[in-house]
Design brief:
about 600 residues, alpha+beta, Adenine-n6-DNA-methyltransferase TaqI, Chain A, domain 2, ten-stranded mixed sheet, four-stranded antiparallel sheet
Length: about 600
């Protein structure tokens, strides 16, 4: 390992010096001055400011409040970022002690308040600036008490550690924590240094596939939590369905009692590509017979500003104000496969439809991802550039953004196709204009993975283009969408922001169903949501979506569907589909309002 990651087993605490205290007094920390504020990640480390509504909700619902004996309990923020959690933790402990009779203006009581916090509150972060700022907010909250302490230098030490707490050598010096909270950094697997990635993969069950770093923070947190300890994180919700989330789902189910999963419908972290969920659970001692017996939890969807209207800490006192969308689940109903958490009426209608349909892959279909070039800005060109190159090396290209419901809006873009119709690579010297154009970007093209690791020629696309296959008449759909958008195309190549669906049957008949409200309902209720109102369509998932068995159409219904598709009359197509499937009015209302 590089020296940057040679952390010891006993890391240093953060020393609060007189100079730092004086700096905080003269310039109290303000949120607006912090990197990470308003959802902007701190560059290179993925930390973002956690809104106070989320902090408050998590602490309330793990039971870290002044009504509990929190002064005797240990708590840690495993990736403290800008100190949002730590500030509120300190406030709550201080308020608890004052309510018990301690006077912060009394030197002895002030020392007790400070010592209680420094003994029980922990934080860590790989970013030294994050640790420094978190220490600042603690000083700001305790400045009255700190000024009454004996003024040694350093005045006090905080159990705040500027280290990588995920490495196996890291030791906090205690057996476990009573509470663990946090907003782990938003770092994708591709952004983790290879030497550290190797360590994570060897040490953590959750570091599998294209895992995101928050998965490892979950596992580390569960392992550090005492039996009966409470846990609250806000993270992306991708682990609900993603393949890499399977080990994490398994660990959560096997080691904890879930208390609540709260999907946030707004976007409190707008500058990071995350659809956040709050996860609250309690670690259970698996040696006791009561473990995992009929444990129920609540799945809710809410806006960040409405979190105060949900309370799930005490299951006997659960309340949801203003008709909050919350559903009770039994944990035993979940397993390590994807978690499909939805409101009962959504699942009921979906189940009724599925009983009348067949899986997409039961039809004679082939679903293929579009072509990836690994250098779109070079290989995909506009008409003006295309006019300067050889015609027979260019093919029209359709991107996801071009696909509408029943049609495409081609923007005169072309892809440079360096392959013959038999998929062999062309001799680029036979196309001097194109060679001259591509040569301007040769160093960039040579640096692509497909050239470096797969020994492709510098002017090839990442994916080999099978012209005869890629330009066939077929149905295409975007990979990311907020609506069911399917169109029939021919003679163009699909970009990798599209999927192509090849079908041996009647394309018009199929596309009528694919653009129906029924299919939209099934898509939206099945596909992983990546941001509010948008879902990602994956080949694996598309193959499993239910479709109408074409054999159930009567000749009259078939002719009617094809006629309506030619007219793009999607409303009347919906009526036909509802009649064929005998969908009751109550279910139609759910489908069309979803």
């Amino acid at each position: 390992m590089s020296n940057e990651f040679q952390f010891g087993e006993n890391p240093d605490k953060f020393e609060v010096t007189k100079d730092l205290i004086e700096e905080v007094k003269n310039n109290p920390p303000k949120l607006d001055d912090l990197d990470g504020y308003q959802g902007h990640p701190i560059k290179g480390v993925g930390d973002v400011y956690t809104p106070v509504e989320i902090v408050t909700f998590i602490l309330d619902n793990i039971g870290f409040n002044k009504e509990a004996n929190i002064e005797d309990r240990t708590i840690i923020d495993l990736s403290c970022g800008t100190g949002s959690f730590i500030r509120e933790i300190v406030r709550r402990i201080r308020s608890r002690l004052i309510e018990k009779g301690l006077d912060p203006s009394n030197p002895e009581d002030a020392e007790t308040i400070v010592n209680t916090i420094t003994e029980n509150v922990y934080a860590s972060d790989l970013n030294s600036i994050a640790i420094w700022r978190t220490a600042q907010v603690v000083i700001d909250e305790l400045i009255e008490e700190i000024e009454l302490l004996d003024q040694n230098d350093p005045v006090l030490e905080l159990k705040f550690y500027n280290d990588n707490s995920l490495l196996p050598t890291f030791n906090y010096g205690i057996d476990g924590f009573d509470f663990i909270v946090g907003n782990p950094p938003y770092i994708k697997n591709s952004e983790i240094k290879p030497e550290i990635d190797d360590i994570y993969r060897s040490e953590y069950e959750t570091a599998k596939g294209k895992y995101d770093l928050y998965s490892v923070f979950f596992e580390r947190g569960i392992d550090l939590l005492n039996n009966g300890g409470k846990f609250g994180f806000v993270t992306p919700d991708r682990f609900f369905r993603a393949d890499y989330g399977e080990p994490l789902r398994s660990k959560i189910l096997s080691d904890t009692h879930i208390k609540a999963l709260i999907d946030l419908e707004d976007d409190p972290f707008p500058k990071v590509d995350a659809y956040p969920v709050i996860t609250i659970f309690e670690k259970e001692d698996k040696s006791f017979p009561r473990y995992q017996v009929d444990n129920s939890f609540y799945y809710c969807t809410a806006e960040t500003d409405d979190l105060s209207e949900i309370s799930v800490f005490d299951q006997d006192l659960v309340h949801f104000d203003n008709g909050m969308d919350c559903v009770e689940y039994n944990q035993s109903d979940l397993d390590q496969s994807a978690w499909d958490l939805q409101k009962p009426e959504i699942k009921k209608v979906k189940s009724a439809l599925e009983d009348k349909l067949i899986r997409f892959d039961k039809l004679p279909i082939d679903i293929r991802a579009g072509i990836a070039t690994a250098a779109d800005d070079v290989f995909i060109i506009n008409k003006q550039t295309a006019n300067k190159l050889e015609d027979d090396i260019l093919v029209p290209v359709i991107r996801g953004r071009d696909v509408q419901k029943g049609s495409t809006s081609w923007d005169d873009s072309y892809i440079i196709n360096p392959y013959r119709h038999d998929k062999s690579v062309v001799n680029i010297s036979e196309y001097p204009k194109t060679k001259s154009y591509l040569s301007k970007y040769k160093s960039k093209l040579e640096d692509r993975y497909c050239v470096r690791e797969r020994n492709k020629r510098w002017y090839e696309t990442h994916d080999t283009i099978d012209y005869n296959q890629e330009t066939k008449r077929r149905i295409i759909t975007p990979d990311v969408t907020s609506d069911n958008r399917f169109a029939i195309v021919e003679g163009s190549i699909s970009h990798n922001t599209c999927y192509s669906i090849y079908y041996e049957g009647d394309l018009e008949l199929l596309i009528g169903y694919l653009n129906s409200s029924v299919f939209r309902y099934l898509l939206k209720s099945s596909m992983p949501e990546i941001r509010t109102g948008y879902w990602r369509q994956m080949k694996r998932d598309l193959k499993q979506i239910p479709v109408i068995d074409p054999s159930i159409y009567t000749a009259e219904q078939r002719d009617e569907m094809i006629r309506l598709v030619s007219q793009k009359d999607w409303d009347k197509i919906d009526d036909v589909i509802y009649r064929i499937l005998d969908v009751p009015d109550a279910h139609i209302n759910v489908i069309e309002s979803f």
